[in-house]
Specification:
By secondary structure, this protein is α+β, with helices and mostly antiparallel strands. 20% of the residues lie in helices and 33% in strands. The model has no long low-confidence stretch (mean pLDDT 96). The chain binds 2-oxoglutaric acid and fe (ii) ion. It comes from Acanthosepion pharaonis.
Length: 166
């Protein structure tokens, strides 16, 4: 996606007994990185579509706050590029791509103090700044209806206007 969604709106029409959604603030996640990891992540670009050359820096300024934020998608990333458009440019193999995605996920998991898990009640509505907050469904969202009841979550997104760049 060339311009990531600005906002996400969630409305749960039917909440299951368990099956929350995780939210994590990305500026704070960057601030929690070790100096070494921060420097490495600054050199990474994420490739969401190689053919249409949609490539964004992993770390870039949030268009409204200008504070550093992250552009990543744990499920839909074709690859990464180190030092994009410099003489040291290098594209990752699939195994290296998987390693980097795991590293990002591990970084999230190692900051439980930053994580907010929303446990839904029917009728809840959330409006989130999608560029400032990462989100992920918890594994419990995959439990069968027979065990936890029906889960119907409506999500609407507000089109982004910013092409992330350094
Ligand atoms: O099902 C959830 O809790 C999260 C859904 C989600 O990731 C999305 O709508 O983008
Ligand atoms: Fe999502």
């Amino acid at each position: 996606m060339d311009k990531p969604f600005k906002f996400s709106l969630y409305y749960i029409a039917s909440a299951p007994k368990k099956g929350g959604t995780v939210f994590i603030p990305l500026k704070e996640l960057i601030e929690a990185l070790s100096e070494e990891k921060h420097q490495r992540w600054e050199k990474l670009w994420m490739v969401s579509d190689r053919q249409s050359r949609i490539i964004h820096p992993l770390i870039y300024p949030h268009p409204s706050t200008k504070k550093p934020t992250l552009c990543f998608h744990l499920g839909m990333t074709e690859g990464f590029c180190w030092n994009y458009q410099s003489k040291d440019e290098r594209w990752t193999s699939w195994s290296e791509t998987e390693e980097i995605l795991s590293e990002i996920h591990a970084e999230i998991e190692s900051n439980p103090n930053l994580i907010y898990v929303h446990e839904w009640q029917t009728g809840d509505f959330i409006l989130s700044d999608n560029l400032a907050l990462g989100h992920e469904a918890t594994p419990e969202t995959q439990l069968p209806v027979s065990e936890v009841g029906l889960r119907v979550l409506h999500r609407t997104t507000i089109r982004g206007t910013n092409f992330p760049s350094k």
